[in-house]
Specification:
The chain is of the alpha+beta class. The protein is 36% helix and 15% strand. The strands form 3 sheets. The protein has an 8-stranded mixed β-sheet with strand order 6-8-7-12-13-11-9-10, sandwiched between helices. It has a 3-stranded mixed β-sheet with strand order 1-3-2. Helix 7 packs antiparallel against helix 16 and helix 9 packs across helix 12.
Length: 464
């Protein structure tokens, strides 16, 4: 097993973002020192992890001294607009020009006071569950470089897990915050629909399945991000998350879901992690009971139809909406395969969309039976590089993806929040995450339970 990390005795040390922001506020360290340390750490491990796609000539510092993460270095995922850097979306099919201004969500992210070093890699348009490419090297998992770090926020997850930065931007259209968090031993909370400012691309979707957020090494960093981002924008239709600082004393009904909605087999390490976590929650006084998935194979088929429609839409409008250099023949095998899948039966899309729009009510009814549902994030631990390569035959790759990503898309369609929390290592030394699902607008309960799990089952450290 090859483990790679950048932790060392520099200005960043082993601190999380909350502690680094405190040190900046108390003038124990400067933003410039932290940015230099992050830049040097990235340079040391980039050749092995391939997680960075673009950097500023000089780190982009914030003028927001009051931001919750003022002076803390970070990376922004390369599918949102960041002024001065191109938005490439992980694709070789076009050459993006530098963005003229920050995107709508980027402004909310920057409001927390972070220093931006550059942009992190993702698979083409975020469609894959592994950050891999047709010809270029994959983004590798710092816990075991022969394995995937998940996707689509794989570059961000690799950088945070390896210690380059303590927090990085991520977004989630089918599990893309939670999947890499599970693969890399991180905390990843997909927010409720409407919690944060939507990106420009998201606003054009017929069904908004994308949530913005971050991946972190500590629960308190994720909690602080949600509290800090609310200072920039708070949706009055949702109860505020506020600043969650620890577990609550409430006794909850926790449903335990171990059967995949798609019927995919769950590997032993993942099942054991969920069962251990259920026992911890029961020991803490919560009522733990079995749960059944509220959706099944029809949902999976409908989500695939929508996913394929998005690939068709992106590739068909590339010259208009991305760049005039767009060349669809250079799109990767997964993108082209999804487009072809949609073109074979486009008439199925309206009915699929209609059923998907009803899932929010189905999910809400499900959450009347439980306060929270515990499940796997993924059906198995991070696969080896190549298992989910876009160069694989499309039918084989699609089958593997559906058997891997079977728990997370429900929350993108329903708009509900869900969090991936580290739950130990597999016998092979790969991180395993567990998944907590909550009611729409109730990120607070998920964070409170995540604090409890962090205290009772301390997260494994890559540097140990």
């Amino acid at each position: 097993m090859t483990r790679v990390h950048a932790f060392t005795n520099d200005a960043l040390g082993e601190h999380d973002a909350v502690e680094l922001a405190r040190q900046v506020a108390d003038r124990e360290v400067s933003p410039a020192e932290l940015a230099l340390a992050a830049t040097e750490r990235a340079a040391r491990i980039e050749g092995e992890l391939n997680a960075v796609v673009a950097t500023y000539d000089q780190p982009r510092t914030s003028d927001r001294d009051g931001g919750v993460f003022a002076g803390v270095p970070t990376y922004v995922k390369d599918n949102v607009e960041l002024a001065g850097l191109p938005t490439q979306n992980g694709s070789d099919a076009y050459t993006g020009a530098p963005a003229k201004k920050d995107g709508l969500f980027t402004q909310q992210l920057l409001s927390t006071g972070v220093t931006v070093i550059g942009k992190s890699r993702l698979p083409e348009f975020g469609f894959n569950a592994s950050t891999e490419y047709m010809a270029a090297d994959a983004v590798r998992n710092p816990w075991h470089t022969d394995h995937s770090v998940g996707a689509s926020s794989g570059g961000s997850a690799a950088l945070v897990a390896a210690g380059v930065v303590p927090i990085a931007h991520a977004n989630d259209g089918g599990g893309s915050i939670r999947i890499p968090a599970a693969c890399a031993g991180l905390v990843g909370l997909k927010p409720s629909r409407g919690r944060f400012v939507d990106s420009e691309a998201t606003r054009a979707l017929p069904l908004n399945i994308i949530g913005e957020g971050v991946v972190t090494r500590s629960v308190r960093d994720t909690a602080a991000f949600f509290a800090g981002a609310e200072r920039h924008h708070r949706n009055p239709a949702l109860a505020p998350v506020g600043h969650v600082t620890g577990p609550a004393q409430r006794r909850l009904r926790v449903g335990v879901l171990l059967d995949s909605p798609t019927g995919a087999a769950i590997d032993d390490a993942t099942r054991a992690a969920v069962e251990r976590t259920a026992a911890l929650l029961e020991k803490a006084g919560h009522v733990v009971e079995p749960a059944k998935a509220p959706v099944g194979e029809q949902f999976a088929a409908d989500f695939l139809q929508y996913w394929a429609m998005l690939a068709d839409l992106v590739t068909s409008t590339g010259r208009l909406n991305l760049d005039k250099t767009w060349d669809g023949t250079k799109a990767d095998g997964l993108t082209r395969g999804l487009k072809a899948h949609h073109r074979r039966a486009p008439h199925r899309t309206p009915a699929a969309l209609l059923r998907l729009r009803k899932v929010r009510r189905t999910y809400a009814d499900w959450l009347t039976e439980h306060d929270v549902v515990l499940s796997p994030v993924l059906a198995h631990t991070a696969p080896r590089i190549g298992h989910l390569s876009p160069a694989q035959p499309f039918d084989q790759l699609l089958e593997r993806l559906l058997n891997y990503v079977s728990f997370t898309p429900l929350h993108n369609v329903s708009g509900a929040p869900a969090i991936s929390v580290p739950a130990g290592l597999s016998p092979e030394g790969l991180p395993v995450g567990v998944h907590l699902s909550g009611a729409h607008g109730d990120e607070r309960t998920l964070l409170e339970l995540a604090y409890l799990l962090e205290a009772e089952q301390p997260f494994a450290r890559i540097q140990d």
